[in-house]
Write a structure and sequence with these properties.
Elements lengths: L7 H20 L3 H29 L2
Helix pairs in contact: 1-2
């Protein structure tokens, strides 16, 4: 089995995707609400990821 070598950013986005799917499935009742909520959570995770990344970048300058 080949090894998977992912960067920190790729792992964070993968974590965001998997967590969003789990939250969508467990958080809402209907399929369309689940998809919308998972997409909202994923967008929020990625926005927070980039926002905190820039905050740390400027904090270390």
């Amino acid at each position: 089995m080949p090894k998977m070598s992912l960067s920190h950013l790729e792992m964070a986005i993968l974590f965001s995707l998997m967590t969003s799917i789990a939250l969508g499935i467990t958080g809402k009742a209907t399929r369309t609400d689940q998809i919308r909520y998972a997409a909202y959570c994923f967008g929020s995770f990625v926005l927070a990821l980039f926002g905190l990344g820039w905050l740390m970048y400027f904090g270390h300058r």
